[in-house]
Amino acid sequence: MEAICIPKMYCPFPPQISPYAQEVHEHSLAWATRFQMIQGEAARRRFHGTNLARLTARAYPTASLEDMKLLNDWMVWFFVFDDQFDDVLGTSLESALSTVHAYIKICEDAGEQSAPGPAAAALCDLYRRTLPRMSPDWRTRFTRHFIQYLDTYTWMGQHHLQGAIPELHVYLEYRYHSGGAVPSLDLIEFADRLCLPDELLLNWEFERLNRAANHAICWSNDIFSLAKELARGEVSNLVVITKHMYRLSWQEAIESVNTMVTNEVRLFERIERQMPPVAPHLAADAYRYIAGLKAWIRANFDWSAETHRYLHVEQTRAGETVSYVEPILATAPMIE
């Protein structure tokens, strides 16, 4: 592969970071260790190098310390589970289907019924700690979005096993859910203790703001994670698809995707400027939510540029598992 350069991302939103980042990092390490999401030294090094607390502290900068601990536990679950796809779920469609089905059942049962393995137990814990405080509408919406996220793993598994590069329009439809950005943006309401009705979130301006933020986050991730995904044989990546579709060099494909990201951020700005006034009784929460979307876009750009997750890619021989992926989908006892 030719040498590539990650371009500067266009982002007019100012950076923010909570002072709780280090404390939250230490909490989530203890939480992940307790649930055996992290077991060995390689996974522990991976955790420290990834430093998701610096993403969480940027994405939810106004959250309280206790709320940020839970939010970061969610981020840890998302990213550790994603690593399982490359080396476990991605090598067996049957495993992907059975795992996704089991975790969807956890979501439908609101975390009351678990499944074997550390990841399932940790997911139950997250559900039980999150849902009680939120409205019934939010719980329904979050669960629907989380299930849609899980469902994308079976689609990605098929393409991963076949080595088939997806069609662009199909990939973009699945990418909206596969990055976990939709439930992560739902958590803005948890972080800022908001209660937004569906009638507001489903109007055109809010729906398009959410979509533009999602695109900026997920599409830019395909740039930052390119080297990692190529090392694991992953073809479901916007840069890979763009290169293949338009017969570009790697750098040209990266620049093309970066232009797509920039266009989404500019669209976000334009919609925000032109959106009509929000009803007075909803205005304060609505504008805090929009501020949360901006924080997430900027957080993703800044964290992705510094995390070892994308800067230090472990190389292995074909068929070998990377050192930090552990058997968290299999039965293992929780450490009391």
What does this structure look like?
This protein is an all-alpha fold and 336 residues long. It has a single domain, classed as Farnesyl Diphosphate Synthase. The chain has 16 helices and no strands. Helix 11 runs parallel beside helix 15. It is globular.
End-to-end separation in angstroms reads 46 Å
- Major sheet attributes: none
The overall pLDDT, averaged over residues, is 91
Shape: globular
CATH topology label: Farnesyl Diphosphate Synthase
CATH homologous superfamily title: Farnesyl Diphosphate Synthase
Give the total of domains. 1
Entry keywords:
Farnesyl Diphosphate Synthase; single chain; 68% helix; mainly alpha; 336 residues
In short:
The protein is mainly alpha-helical and 336 residues long.
Task: Tell me the layout of helices and strands.
Blueprint: H1 21-34, H2 41-50, H3 52-59, H4 65-87, H5 93-108, H6 118-130, H7 136-162, H8 168-178, H9 181-191, H10 198-201, H11 204-224, H12 226-231, H13 238-246, H14 250-274, H15 280-306, H16 308-311
